[in-house]
Specification:
There is one protein chain. The protein is mostly helical and about 375 residues long. The protein has 2 domains: about 10-90, no CATH class; about 95-380, no CATH class. The protein has 18 helices and no strands. The protein has helices at about 10-25, 30-40, 50-60, 65-105, 110-125, 125-145, 145-165, 170-180, 190-200, 210-225, 235-245, 250-260, 270-300, 305-310, 310-330, 335-340, 345-360, 365-380. Helix 2 (about 30-40) crosses helix 4 and helix 12 crosses helix 13 (about 270-300). The longest helix is centred in the N-terminal third of the chain and has 41 residues, at about 65-105. The chain starts with 9 loop residues before the first helix and ends in a 7-residue tail after the last helix.
Amino acid sequence: MTAPAAPPGLAVVLREWGRIGCIGFGGPPAHIALLRELCVTRRRWLDDRQFEDAIAATNLLPGPASTQLAIYCAWRLRGIAGALVGGLSFIVPGLVLILALAALFLAAAPPDWVLGAGAGSGAAVAAVALQAAASLAPASWRRAPARPRWIAYLLIGGLAAATLGSWLVLILLSCGAIEIARRHVGAADQGVASVHAVPLLAAAGAAAGSLLSLAWVAFKVGALSYGGGFVIIPLMQHDAVDTYHWMTDGQFLNAVALGQVTPGPVVQTVAVVGYAAAGVGGGLLAAAVAFAPSFSFILVGAERFDRLRANHNVRAFLDAAGPAAIGAIAGAAIPLALALTETWQFAVLAAAALALFVLRRGVVLTLLAAGAAGAVASTLGAALPS
């Protein structure tokens, strides 16, 4: 058996995690593959078991799992300093790019081809949401301890995302609490309850002002996105479009599409929402708040991950919140599709569904093709969303 290599210096962490942040198109599967190739195969900083344990532990946490995996791997190698350097290196390249694209797509008077590209890629987002849910469901189904309840939680999450976007977080938390209660977990171990009560207490200050409202929306994205960034989209859409009127439905679809086609974490969609609310400063604030829980979970809890994985309350909570989150991702496709206003956008949506589910094309390629179709349609005189 080959001995692990010596841990790298911080400059190497900065370079290698930054490289992944620049080329990490394709969401969590691509990020995991790149981190495994770097840390296990090429550099031998971690062995297979350590890396698999890291995936299992970070998948138990709310928030963007691949971001937390990147932070955790850097923490294993260089401690707190490594976690901060590695995490920021992984996040910042995509953040810079998505803010630049937000400035282009949310400009006061962008060219028609830009509006068409945004409308085209935005039209495909509902199909991407369905594909994301479909990719998560099989593994969750195999792990389900009680499949009738798994189906029930899935349906509850889907209905909540389709009809009650502003209450989605409470629905996910309630599903987890119900499963804990069903398993008759004693009151001696209150770890999960204490962690997940924090967001509910924070809600009291959400309406104190525009920046506090933005911070609250970003916190929900970063701390409560069980199952990936898509699970929080119905709530983000309700807050950004209906409650605070920072964006139109069409601009929100653009934001989701930009989060998919840029490298790094998909959760960076929230930076576009922040840009729409308060410019570059709002985008940076939203990103900082959204990613703060991921850093906190690793820096505070990494040494306790073994106990976390064995905690019956955590397992019970996630056995319910997991399928509810997958249902919510699928249910998000309904409000996303209803946000479309032009006939040609529905044709793009149908073509995107064909590409993803029948032709098995990748998400990034599908969204880029949809954006190109929208740009061509606008050049030919097709009506653009108002």
